[in-house]
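Reopening: structure tokens for the S-adenosylmethionine complex, inputs below.
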Amino acid sequence: MLPAPSSDALAHSQRVAAHLRALIENAGGWIPFSRYMDAALYAPGLGYYAAGAMKFGAAGDFVTAPELTPLFGRTLAHAIAPLLAEAGGEVLELGAGSGRLAVDLLGELERLGAVPARYCILEVSADLRERQQRMIARELPHRCERVQWLDELPAHFSGAILGNEVLDALPVELVHWTESGPLVRGVALEGEAFAWRDRPIADPALRARAAALGLAPGYLSEINPAADALVASLGKMLDRGLLLLIDYGFAAAEYYHPQRHMGTLRAHVRHHALDDPFYLPGLADLTAHVDFSAVARAGMAAGLELAGYTSQAGFLLNGGLAELLMQTSPADAAAWLPQTNAVQRLVSPAEMGELFKVIGFGKGTIPPLAGFARGDRRHTL
Ligand SMILES: C[S@@+](CC[C@H](N)C(=O)[O-])C[C@H]1O[C@@H](n2cnc3c(N)ncnc32)[C@H](O)[C@@H]1O
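Re-run output (same inputs, fresh job):
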């Protein structure tokens, strides 16, 4: 059962809904779903990521890998340390959430003697940026001066770029394949309520993508041009180094499988996944799975070399997660048990191990990534 939201939370959601209705009215009665999702998540002071909701962890709406255990960030530190040690460079984290991953990564890089001169964070939410600043000041005060928040992507960058669960939080286009061709699904109003309306696709690039997928009439799914655009920008600005993106999703053949004919868009509230993206806007996270074939294509078109693609379980276990876990003695049950539980969630195929994938790109000569040493699935993309 979903817990009932507080009266404050409901009042906030009503303000977000009023903002969305105004957007629709000002646009002449219809906006594409991507515009709805963007505002519901990121409208300053209102959207899910832009206002003060708890979001991460047991008391929030969902749990991400860095929130489960420091071993996730520590394993990623081992993945990027050889690059930083051999070739230098900085770290850029996209969408740093609570700041947890930055703390765990930097802490482990320090132990490995590979602290970068700068750890940059690009975060679109002002609220989360403040939370990240507080967490890093509290947990890693002596490294504060190395952490910098960027307002936009730099023109050039060398080093390691990381993003955990960022692509799934970008606004998607909804496409409905019909007898008369693909249509873009948008949002209109019926009185005060949000209602679906399909329209011909005006954007030629989206129209071509939708037509190329050639899905059967009745099929409804997402296309994520914002993810392609972000990966393309990262590819262009990376002079030398590595881009690692971790998220839930599949290769295109599985993403657009006939059985997945209702798409992957979900609202996440208090650890429940709902099919209704209109549920209490501003209080629900909206996400879609990632089409990693499209991500791979966008990266390669921007001059990146595909370094590997595998499951989260494969990447973390190849990359030394179990060895890091063994640094805690099983005799110390109070420390060991929560860590083994968290590791189980990260790698179990029934939990995050198989649904989550890691895709890596490189530019220039970079040391091989242990995470892709076995079980690389590039051929499936
Ligand atoms: C699902 S959260 C994941 C947070 C964190 N990486 C974690 O694993 O806990 C998505 C994050 O991406 C951020 N974000 C969304 N769009 C972004 C963009 N275009 N560039 C950078 N960050 C973005 C959000 O504000 C949020 O911090």
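The chain is about 40% helix and 25% strand. The two ends are 38 Å apart (CA to CA). Marking as resolved unless the reporter disagrees.
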